[in-house]
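Worked example 4.2. Below are the chains of a multi-component assembly; read each line carefully before continuing.
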Amino acid sequence: MSGHNESILREPLITGDNITYAKITDDILGPVENKPNKAWWIGFIFASLGALLWVVAVSYTFWNGIGAWGLNKTVGWAWDITGFVWWVGIGHAGTLISAVLLLFRQNWRNSINRSAEAMTIFAVICAATYVVSHMGRPWLAYWVLPLPNQFGSLWVNFNSPLVWDMFAISTYFSVSLLFWYTGLLPDIATIRDRAVGTRRKIYSIFSFGWSGSVKTWQRFEAVSLILAGISTPLVLSVHTIVSMDFATSVIPGWHTTIFPPYFVAGAIFSGFAMVLTLLLVARKVLGLENYITMFHIESMNKIIILTGSIVGVAYLTEFFIAWYSGSEYEQYAFINRSTGPYWWSYWMMMTCNVISPQLLWFKKIRLSIKATWILSIVVNVGMWFERFVIIVTSLHRDYIPSSWAMFYPTWVDVSVFVGSIGLFFTLFLLFLRVLPSIAIAEVKLLLKSASEQAKLKQIKEGHENKEYVAEYIESLEKFDSVKQEEYAKI
Amino acid sequence: MSDIKYILGSFGDPDEMMHGIDKLQENNITIYDVYTPMPIHGIEAKLGVKRSRIDIAAFCFGITGTCAAFALIYFCAVIDWKVNIGGKPSFALPDFIPIMFELTVLFCAFGMVLTYYASTHLFPGRAPRVMDLRATDDRFVIAIDAHENAAHTVIDDLLKDAGALEVKYNERKYISYE
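Applying the procedure described above to all two chains together yields the following structure tokens:
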């Protein structure tokens, strides 16, 4: 229950003094209820220009066909699938944070889950547009569905991982959206009850008439827990199935059983990096330092080291197995990756994904906002190169040396990719304006047990073990939002 | 006094509110409902709200999804149109599993959430039934039916003793109606 004290050894999840329930609402709804500041407008203008570029490039592709891209006979899949897998990977952190961390009772998820879930949904939208545009004839996209048809009832091939992928991505998107929206209902009701006029009417429709009665909350919690329970295997299944698009083929470099766990680890790795990229800026610009604390940042960095190291081990295992298999095609694929004409992309991937995240072992770097932000971008650059390496270097030198080729992107390839980043940021910036970026109700749950002021009160009551208190105060040193002077006296 | 429909005790602290519920119940005053800005654990036991059976519904929806996926794939790939892939058996169960899993999750999630919306009367555009506008912000509100419980001054005292910051007498059930 809310009144129970938490162990003093745990770092606070809400910092600052004089935090009340009303202040939490005010702080979090600040960006929603007030006019945007200059930083938001600058970001939004750039992002929407990017989104415009995306509209132009995707329309150009639809009009002219995928001949507009730099694909050739040998490299038939390149930036399109690279972009798709990259975005789906980024879209993994949201549901992981909201589902897996809920099952593990990691309370620090409460302040980051909402924006991470929003990010998931926008990333999956970006990924889905790649799927549709790479089909060449997007108006026939419904052919991936098992629909009765005029072609002698020829159904989709249920043995094909591409069909599984269609089911996986659409389930993931719709279930994530449902999870996100159900969690939003109480917070939309908060905005509704504070607003007046038309604004109130709009939020009233979207709040589904939420009242916050006992039964509603009790069932809400049951629903959240079950959704978390079914979303956990769902998160793991989605990137597993994405990896099967490659792993079930017979192309050297793709035909490996290590792909599912390796892709899932990579997805979590890039997803957390993207959460950090966004939230480090958002916490500063929106003034949410008390809710997204250094503890949250450090925890996410720890997950990045872990998953980055798993990815590193996977790269090495893949290389070892290629040699150990004794298959010369498999061996050549890997030697070619690291020393062939695309050596630079392989080493780019190795540096960004395996070597540079190891810097996070140093506490100083892990706790530096600037360093974390730069590393989070480096990780996603690396993850883009990982997919590029897997896709293009496995294809560009096939079994007949006369058909060996290189891939050169056209302006359309580049614009679709850069534009999708613009689209993503446009959606995210709009989200910050209309919906609370932190789950208000869930953060309120932490106020009485896990906040800095509750712990300070606990210390002042004097029943705590002295050693523990000293350890706790030491752990507060990393927080940029804690007034250290207050603790010097104790 | 007869115009008053509901008495609302508005608390600023969840523990004081829980204390208030205990006090009222000790004095045999029935509580209509409690509105809070966040879930309060243990409150459902006090108010005698039964354990939610939504998990049973979720299981049934999930298993329906599994069966639906199996039936669809079996019909398409085994009965209606067998595709000869190198003479391999068309009833390839391992290949069915990914889609069976995805549809289990899909049916379970949508079935359960829609059941939840239906059972708690949540749907887009529903007029919010709000007794106190601050109950979604920073107040924990106990609502008491004024007709069923006649001793209004006793209720007032009990609520204030327990720590209520404010006691309201609403002449309309829901203030959010225009």
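Take a moment to check your reading of the output against the notes. The longest helix of chain A spans residues 161-194. Chain A touches chain B through 69 residues (CB under 8 Å).
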